[in-house]
Amino acid sequence: MSRAAPLAESPALAPLPDDCVVDFTDVTRVYRMGTTEVRALDGVDFRVKRGEYWSIMGSSGSGKSTLLNVLGCLDRPTTGVYRLAGRDTRELDDDQLSELRSRELGFIFQSYNLIPQLTVLENILVPLTYQDAPPADGEERAHVLARRLGLGNRMDHRPLELSGGQQQRVAIARALINDPALILADEATGNLDSQTAGEILDLFDELWREGKTLVFVTHEPHVAARASHLLRMKDGKVAEIEVRRERAGAAR
To answer: Who has greater pLDDT, 186 or 5?
Structure first.
């Protein structure tokens, strides 16, 4: 089992509010290529509360993809602190980080990232292979999600037998199967026609109204306008955070 590098002594962290899902405190991510140092993230601070819907925008090279990788526990900060669902990720070795990722995160990608050899049902169940959930419970939940997403008659099909919109719905069901604390989407409508993209965005709105927490990377302003919060990245820094709208029925 691989172990995380020893941590330098640092002041005790302040407790987080119960509704805090994401906490970034002075996060940097530095890449070194020969003698060149690239600060992809440079002192990033922000918090995402349960039930918020964030969009992340920025030009190429602004740091938004690196930010998403760190949010998804696919990369670690060079310095600073990232706490996900109350867990300080600095304290976790690679195996523990993988477990946290499988339990607390759901991923939706532009290219769907489905496994072509698996059926729709098997693709939806992939996140549960890393957990101890009873197989019958997982299959029942997968069928419920599939019916909700209009895939009830497609469970035995494979990805190449589906349209792009159907494949993205499978990816959404897969992201929801473990009831994650945070759903991360990376240009999730980028490969879809405008009508199908609108249907997927309507589905994200529906999930948000139900209290799900979403973070969506996009370069399209009309997509970002759907979110409750907009975070703009520039040169690895947070250039702006804007509150756009509140969820209907949300506590004030």
So the answer is: 186
